[in-house]
Amino acid sequence: MKNTEFAIDLKNICKEYVTEDVITRVLFDFSLSVKKGEFVAITGPSGSGKSTLLNILGLLDTTTTGTYILNNIDVTDLTEDQLSDIRNREIGFVFQSYNLLKRSSVLDNVLLPAIYLGTDSKIRVARAIELLTSVGLKEQMYKRPNQLSGGQQQRVAIARALMNRPAIILADEPTGNLDSKSGVDIMNILKQLNAQGNTIIMITHDKNIASIATRAVTIRDGRLYS
After folding, report:
1. Domain 6-101+166-225 belongs to what topology?
2. What is the pTM of this model?
3. What are the structural domain ranges in the chain?
4. I need a surface site. Which of 14, 56, 110, 156 has the fewest CB within 10 A?
């Protein structure tokens, strides 16, 4: 029987990479469940496995062994096309380096996920303008990312992440490239989104940032500690 309480349910996850005859295990047999509407911070030093875990959570990589249930869908053995479709519908990404298209306008960057999804043009433009307004960037929508500050670019990335109304937001060091004030602004936006019901999983090395989440777990040497 599926548990509808969880947005994410990882069971006995291991991840190995094979190079020639060398097997490198990055994640060691751990389980993690995240309830719908939770805000979970994942902390740990460099090389601990945080990025690998984020890639698995975001369906950008697959497990070697174990089971991954995402919103009651077993995604463990799905095809690349199936994973891509679910990723575009269910997950919004916010990256440390923003990952915006430099030659495209702010508006076009936010529109991108809805274009991939095939959303009607009028609906997606209205949605993008609504999101940019909500993050205080309506007046900047026709500028390019390099005309914005780091904090503004991250707000664009958040608007893009919300474009397809995803159930889950994955944030990878979302304040890592920002000054203190901009970092506070971004965390306030994430807290507001969580208060509105979004499930948020955030990777961070900053314990002060992690303390803003409702729960924190730690990865060390590929093992998960609550």
Report:
1. Rossmann fold (3.40.50)
2. 0.91
3. 6-101+166-225
4. 14
